[in-house]
Amino acid sequence: MPATHHTKMLILGSGPAGLSAAIYAARAGMQPIVVQGLQPGGQLTITTDVENYPGFAEVIQGPWLMEQMTAQATHVGASMIWDTIVDVDLLQRPFRLTGDGGDVYVAETLVIATGAQAKWLGVPGEQELGGKGVSACATCDGFFYRGKKVVVIGGGNTAVEEALYLTNHSDDVTLIHRRDTLRAEKILQDRLHANPKIKVLWNKKVDRFVAGEGTAGLVGVDLIDTVTGHERTDGGFVAIGHSPSTELFKGKLPLDADGYLAVTPGTSLTAVPGVFAAGDVTDKVYRQAITAAGMGCMAALDAERFLAEAEYHAMVDA
Ligand code: FAD
Ligand code: NAP
Question: What pLDDT does residue 206 have?
Answer without folding.
Answer: 94
